[in-house]
Design brief:
The chain is of the alpha+beta class. The chain has a domain of 121 residues: Lambda Exonuclease, Chain A (Alpha-Beta Complex). It has eight helices and five strands. Strand 2 and strand 3 form a beta hairpin. The longest helix has 21 residues. It is globular, with a radius of gyration of 20 Å.
Length: 248
Amino acid sequence: MIDIRKLDYFYYSQNSLNTFEQCPLKFKLKYMDNIKWKKDEDEKYYENMKIGLNYHLLCERYFSNIPIPISENEKNHKELSQWIDNLKEIVPMVDENIYLPEYEIKMIKDSIKIQAKYDLIILKPNREIEIWDWKTEDRKLKKSEMENRIQTIVYMYMIKENAKQIFDIEIEFENIKMIFWQPHYKEDKIVIDYSKDQHLKNEGKIKDNIERICNYNFEPFFDKELYKKSCKYCEFNYLCNISKFSAQ
């Protein structure tokens, strides 16, 4: 029997909302049953993840004015060094700005109980806020794709809702931007603008997604065919499909 009451105390995130969209069963296993599972056959996946985590750590040190030593013994040290050089060129530190790396916000509003951890928030003296997010995958991202990501929806919505309380800034919708940047493609930034209309749409989207999860019946037989396209890359494939080849 699933204890649905767990959701009463659960802070949603862009990852958990996105996971439910991919597959409700994956959401249940990961966030309600607290099952941790590793895709042990996918070494390249975890190697790329490690590079990404190392890069995020180096970015945090840079924007915290902490030295950034990259040992030559570190795997991919040349690539990481080049990425940091690219970062310094694209996002130089400016004295007038306030830099908040790896900054976490939690909020509750009506049915919305949600949290987000930002790679970087930049507060500018002209009452502008920039949200920066680092993407280290090789595949070049497109603006049309990033505009509709649940991450963009959640991050921009939460900044607007919390700017006054947390940063003591009366911020206009149009003064909020989210910028996705890939160190592989130094000169290309994906800049997402904001508006009051988009804010209302984002709030509705978040509310709808949370209500869907709260009202979802996890108990009956699960129709895997509805979510089969996500199975191939899911760490829980062995648990619900028995064979990793069943989703291919």
